[in-house]
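Usage example:
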Amino acid sequence: MSFARVLSLALSWAWLLLFSMLPLGIILVIALARPADTVPPFGFAVDPGNFAIAASDELYRSAFWLSLRTASVSTVMCLLIGYPMALAVARAGERWRGPLLLALMLPFWTGFLMRINAWIGMLRDDGWINAALTFLGFAPVRLLYTDTALYIGMVYTYLPFMVLPVYARLAKLDATLLEAAADLGASPFRAFSRVTLPLSLPGIAAGVALVFIPCVGEYVIPELLGGPGAQLIGRVMWEEFFENRDWPMASSLAWLLLMVLVVVPVCVRAAVRVGRGTGPRPR
Amino acid sequence: MEKPGNDGWRIAHRSFQPVGIACKRRQLNEILRIVGLTVRYGTVTTLDRLELSVRRGELFVLLGGSGSGKTTLPRAIGGFVTPAEGSITLDGVDFSRVPPHRRPVNTVFQSGALFPHLSVAANIGFGPRQRGMARAAVAARVAELLALARLEGYGARRPHELSGGQQQRVALARGLAAEPSLLLLDEPLSALDRGLRAETAAELVRLQKRLGTTFIQVTHDQQEALTMADRIGVMQAGRMAQVGTPREVFELPASRFVAEFMGVGNLWDGTVLAGGLTMAVPSIGVIRLAASAPPGPAVLGVRAERIRIGAIPEANQITGVLERTVYAGETVTHSVRLGGATMAQVTEPAHGAASREGAVTVSFPPSACMVFPA
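Running the assembly step on the lines above writes:
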C-alpha cells in the first residue's frame, strides 16, 4: 500500500474514531452510570437500569412513539410534495435546471434558526398569514404552537433533503425508456407507474432516510413551533440533560434512539432489495 | 378524415393472427404512405416535404448520413416528434397527430432501451400487457418470442445480465410482441461488433421474411442496406434522394449525392457533347458513354472497381501517373493523377496485384460510365 493510501485511510479512520465512535462510547458509559449530585452529575457504574426505564416508562415510550409518528407523517408529506418537485426539475429544460436547483437550496444560505424564527413571525396570531386572512375577510386561525405549525416547520426544513436525492435519480433516468414505454402502448400515467416510479425507488429510499432520521430526533422545530403537547424525544432528552440533570437517563434515551434509527434504514434497504429481487414479473 | 379511436387500435392489436400468408398474396400493397411530411426543430428543418410509400411485408431500409433526417423519420412515424405539416397514413388511417401509445407501430431503439428493472420476460410482455392482453395469453406470447429470439431460459434474467447481442434480440422480441403493423428499427446493428453484425443481419432478414411484418430499418451503413433491404430509401437533407431496390440504387444512382453515398469513387465534372454519347472532361479528354445523356454540364461517375490498370481495347483509355497505393486487405486502391488536379481512384483485388508505379494507362468500358445532372 502506498503512503498516500495509508494516510488517507488513517485520516478517515481517525476521524470516525475521534468524532463518532468515541462520543458514542462516552454516551454509553454515561448511560450505564448512576445519576449523582456531583460535577459532572454521574457516578461510574454498570447499571442497565436506565435502559429498562427508558424503554418502559410511559413518558419516554409516548415520546418515542410521537417522534416516530411525527417523523413518518413529515416524511410522507415531504415525499408527496418533493417527488413532483424533483420530477419537474428533472424534466425542465437544460437551462432551467440550474436556477431551479439553486432556488431549492437558497434557504441554506440563511441560518436554520433564523428561518424557523421567520416562520414564527408568519404563523403568529398577529402574524403575516393571519393578517392576510383578516384582510381577505376570513377569521384568523391559531397556527403557532400547534401540530400544523410543527409539520409546516418539519416539511419546510427537510423538503430539500427529499427533493435532491430523488432529483439525482430522475435526472439520470434515460428518457428513451419513457419513449419505449409509450411506444409499447403505455399511457403517460402507466409509463410513470411502471417505469419512472420503480426506477426512482433508490432515490426515494435515500430521501426517506435523509428526512426521517433527523426528523425523529428533531428538537428545535417542536420546541419553537410545536405546542406543549409536542413532547418529541428530542425535547424530552433536552429536558433530561439540562433541566433534570439526569445525564445517564438522557444518554440511555440517546442510545435507544440511535438503535431505532439504525434499525429503520436497515429495514428500508432490505425492503428495497426485496423489491428489486421480486420486481414485476410478466403477468 | 376518419379519426383513429383508441378502441380501434386496441381491437387491431387484439387480433393476434399470423399475417405472413395474407401478406404474400398482397405483396405489393401499400401499408404506409407519407405525404409532404415536414418536421422542424426550432428553425432547423429535419424533414422537408418528404414523400414515401412502403409496401406491406417489405424490409425497407432508410439510408443516410448524419443530418439527413434518417433518425427523425422513424421518430415521426413512432410519434415522438410532431410534424409541422404532412400526413402519415397507415392502412389508410392518418395517425400523424396520434400520441405514440395509441399507434399500431413499435420501435426497436438504437440503445435497446430495455427496462433495467424488469426481467427479460416482463420486458417482452410489456407491450401486449399494455395493450390489454390477458395474463395467460401474454405468458404464452412471451414464451413464443423467447423461442423466436433463441433466448429460452433467459426469461427471468435482467437485461444487464445479457450480452449485447442478446439484449438486441430481446429489444427485437419486445418490439414484435404486440404484433405491430410496422416495426421501426433504429440502427439495430450499430451496437454490435463486426463479427456479430453480419450474422445478426442475416438472422433479422430471415425473421422478417418468416413473420411477414413490415420493417423500416435505419442505417448509415450502405453495406448493411444493400445486403438486408428489399428496397432502400436514400435520404438527403430531409428528403428522399432515391428509392429503389439495392441493385437499382447501387448500379443506377439517381444523383451525384446518391452516387457518392453508394461509394462511387470517381466523380468528374464535365460536359455531355451534342449527340449525348460522349462527354468532355477537363484534363482527361473525351469519354465515350454507353447510354445517351442530355447534352450540357454533367457529372461523370465511375466506380473505382470498374477501372483497370492497363490498356483495354474498346474501352476509354487515359494515361496518368500513379501516385500512391493504399492496401485494404482484400483490395488495393491506386490514386492516379490524370492531369492537373484530376485524380482517378482504381481498385483491384490485392491478391496477385503487381506492384505498380510511374506512368500508367487506366481503362474503363463505356458501360461503367454513369452520368448525373451537374
